[in-house]
Structures are given as C-alpha cells and as structure tokens.
Amino acid sequence: MAISLTRRTAIAGAAVAALATTAVTVAMPAEAGSHHAPKPTIVLVHGAFADSSSWNGVIERLRRDGYPVRAVANPLRGVANDATYVKNTLATISGPVVLVGHSYGGAVITNAAAGEPDVKSLVYIAAFAPATGESLAGLGERPVDHPIDPLPLLTVPTPETQGADLYVDPAQFRAAFAADVDRNEAADMAVAQRPIAAAAFGEPSAAEAWKSIPSWTLITKQDKAINPELQRFMATRAKAHTTEVNASHAVMVSHPDAVTRVIEQAAR
User: Is residue 7 one of the residues assigned to a domain?
Assistant: First the structure.
C-alpha cells in the first residue's frame, strides 16, 4: 500500500533523529578519552653556592615540554628554615608537584615534602638525601672507598647571627664545582655564587620524605662536591630510580638534557 507524503516525511525525520542520536552516543567516549590530566608543577630547589639561574637550561626544556615550573630562591640559612620556606611555596601551588633538589637542596626537599600530599615524587640531582637525625657534615664523613678532597671554602663572619657564611674559593670554583661547564660561564657562577650559613651543614634532618614518596636520583660520576659513592648509598637506601651521568656537580648547567629526562620520568 502506498505511504502518504506526510507519513514518508515523518518517517524520514525520525530516521535522521535516530542517526543523530547514534552519532552523539559514539562520539562521546572518544571525546572523553582525549582528556588529559594537567601536568604536575615542577618545583626546582637549588643548593649551596648557586642560585635559581642555575636551572635555566632545565627550565627551558621543561616549559617546552608543557610543564609548569617554579624555581625557588632557596634562602640557604639552614635545613629547617629553608624547608619551611619551600613548604610555604608549595602552599601557593594547586595540584600535583614534583619536587626537585640539587646538592644541599636535596636535604631541603627531604624535609619540605614531609606531610605534603600533593608532592607526587622527589628528584635528587647530585644531592643529599639525609635520614632523620643525619646532618650533611655527618654524611660527608661517611667512609667511602674513594675519598674526594674537601671543598675549598672561604669563611665570612656574620656578626648579626654570631655565625659565618661559606663560599667556594672563586679561584678553585670550576675545578671543584663545575669542571665540565664552559670556562666563562663557570667564572660567572663563581663570582655570583650565594653563600650558605655554615651552621646548615651541622643541622640534623627532621624528616625523611623519601621513605613514603617515590624518588628518582641522578648521580654525577665526576662530582668533587658530593662523593658519587655517597650519592649511591643514599639512592640505594631511598630505593630511588637511579641514573648515572659522567658529569660534575653542576650537572644541571652542563647536562640539562639528562637532568630534564630524569625529572620528566618522575613526573609521569
């Protein structure tokens, strides 16, 4: 029997509507699947005898790869003081954080990350990772098979605090701290270095965040500031994901690609 024009029009409209509904139903999962969680903020904490500009090469690479970055101006006044400063900085950041410390900055992040649920991982770059009660001076005295010479430090009294600040002798800075950095850049680092309070090296750590937070370590095999054997001991104790590179202590300046790779591993 022939179908009227009006009825045929209604049937066609219903079919189009059904197809449209089907298309939306199929498209929705694809749209949901394309959603990506925001990347964690990378918080960089420099160590003694350096400043935040030492991270510049790493910052450039992290930003190119889409990571938000903060480089903290570490006060270098003492582990507890500096950890509080970093912890206060973390309070201004929303979402997950990867906390990165170089050298003395490793002790700072070990304490700053304690009790911070948004810190998803710790990254130690040629860094100290003390246990509770350990000082950096005490770790430096730990017996190793291949000792290194002490850093050539200069002392400047600070009468207002009844203490002293420490610098690396600028004449020996490159050899002791940045042997694989361009000579002119190392010379600039030597004259612009920031001092650390001498008392910071004797201050015991009050926490060991690496016990509860996953950690990554980059060990510098040509380090003259923190013995590579000591770095390996701390990394093993922390059960850290470990990478080694043939670099000096200033590895973030001389090998920013290697440092960035380790940080991005910890960020995934």
Answer: no
Residue 64 φ then ψ, to 5°: -60, -35
Count of structural domains within the chain: 1
The answer as to whether 104 is a domain residue is: yes
Q: Which of 167, 183, 179 is nearest to 221 (CA)?
A: 179
Q: What does pTM read for this prediction?
A: 0.86
Q: Give tens-digit pLDDT for 170-210.
A: 999 999 999 999 999 999 999 999 999 999 999 999 999 99
Rounded to whole angstroms, the maximal C-alpha distance in the chain is 108
Q: Which domain holds residue 262?
A: 41-145+200-267
How many C-beta atoms surround the C-beta of residue 122 within 10 A? 27
Residue 165's DSSP bridge partners are: 156, 197
Q: Rounded to 5 degrees, what angle do the CA atoms 102, 107, 109 make?
A: 75
153-158 β-sheet, strand order: 153-158, 163-168, 196-197
CA pair distance 88, 156, nearest whole angstrom:
29
The CATH number that applies at residue 62 is 3.40.50.1820
Q: At what angle do helices 79-90 and 104-112 cross, to 10 degrees?
A: 60
Token pair for 192: 């612009």
Give pLDDT tens digits for 50-100.
999 999 999 999 999 999 999 999 999 999 999 999 999 999 999 999 999
